[in-house]
């Protein structure tokens, strides 16, 4: 285990702060890709870091520290989504379409199409696709993070990619005919 992690687990606040600072942008980017919502990405990242501080003593070093953080972030995101869904049943849904603000004017149009199609996928498919194809985790690592069998992860990635292809193909057809 890395010495900075050991020091953080032993209560060294500076080591813990440095460790979390090093991983902050990694988690924000993951959350942004996962949620499609900048504000949610920052909020979930903050919650993730608070949980990491509270649970640092539970980190065993069986996976990389970033993998451990991604697991916390993924569950925090899913919890946040469940809370929001419950809240939306009691409130009007005016805020529902605020998620589609462009990230940068310099990105190609195809990026927006892919990101838009990703956001339409269910979490069960979007999460493993992001972890596999954006972050390069293997199926076994993703299985540990999401607490499902590796075979299930493979099928979710496969099925999710099929849905993405169909969505992007139908989007291209609409533009050609539009």
TrEMBL record:
Signal peptide: none annotated. Residues 114-164 form the RNA polymerase sigma factor 70 region 4 type domain. Keywords: Sigma factor, Transcription, Transcription regulation. GO terms for molecular function: DNA binding; sigma factor activity. It comes from the Bacteria. GO terms for biological process: DNA-templated transcription initiation. Transmembrane segments: none annotated. Residues 19-86 form the RNA polymerase sigma-70 region domain. SUPFAM superfamilies: Sigma2 domain of RNA polymerase sigma factors, Sigma3 and sigma4 domains of RNA polymerase sigma factors. Belongs to the sigma-70 factor family. ECF subfamily. This is RNA polymerase sigma factor SigY. It comes from Halobacillus mangrovi.
